[in-house]
Amino acid sequence: MTPFGAKLRELRQARGIKLKDLAEGLGVSSAYLSALEHGKRGRPSWHLVQGVLAYFNLIWDEAEEIVRLARISHPRVTIDTSGLSPIATELANKLADHVARLEQEEIKTILAILARLEKRKNRD
Questions:
Q1: In the predicted model, is pLDDT for residue 124 greater than 80?
Q2: pLDDT tens-digit readout, 19-43
Q3: Which pLDDT score, from 0 to 100, does residue 76 have?
Q4: Which residues contact 95 (CB under 8 A, 6 or more apart)?
Q5: Confidence band of 121 (pLDDT split at 50, 70, 90)
Q6: What angle (nearest 5°) sits at the alpha carbon of residue 83, between those of residues 82 and 89?
Q7: 65 vs 5, 61, 115, CA distance in Å?
Q8: Number of alpha helices (DSSP H) and beta strands (DSSP E) in the chain
Q9: Lower CB count within 10 Å: N or C terminus of the chain?
Q10: Are the C-beta atoms of residues 39 and 2 closer than 8 Å to each other?
Q11: Spelled out in words, what is the top-level CATH class assigned to the domain 3-71?
Q12: What is the mean pLDDT of residues 105-123?
C-alpha cells in the first residue's frame, strides 16, 4: 500500500463512502481505485489528485498533505547511483534488498534520518 492509497482509503472509510461511489464520483473504475488504494498502481495523476481534493472538499493543510502523499507514492522506485560513490550504490542496493523485511520502527528511524537531512538541505 502506498501513503496516498492508505490516506485515500482512510478518507473514504471515515466518511462511509463505498469504493464504487468514489470511483464514479472521480470518473475512474472501481478496479483502478482499488488498485490505487492497495499500491498496485503507480503514482496518481495530478488530475486524479485534484478530483480527490474536490470530492472530499479538502483545502489548505489537508490538501497539501494529499498532494505530498501522492508525490511520494510511487510503488516501484528506481534509484540512479551512477556517478555517486560505491558506498552510495551499496546503500541503495541493500535498501532495495531489505526494505520488505524492515520492521516499522526501523523504517521510522530511517525516515527520521532522512527528514533531518531534508531540513539541513533546506537551511543551506
A1: no
A2: 999 999 999 999 999 999 998 998 9
A3: 84
A4: 79
A5: confident
A6: 55
A7: 13, 6, 16
A8: 7, 0
A9: C
A10: yes
A11: mainly alpha
A12: 92
Distance CA 35, CA 117 (A): 32
d(CA 93, CA 48): 32
DSSP at 103: -
Rounded CA separation 35/9 (Å): 11
Do residues 66 and 7 touch, judged by C-beta distance below 8 A?
yes
Q: Is 41 left (phi over 0), alpha (psi -120 to 50) or beta?
A: beta
| pLDDT number for residue 1 | 85
**Quick one: pLDDT at residue 48?**
97
CA distance 53 to 86: 42
**Amino acid type, 23:** A
C-alpha distances (whole Å) from 41 to each of 34, 38, 82, 92 are 9, 8, 27, 23
What are the start and end residues of each CATH 1.10.260.40 domain in the chain? 3-71
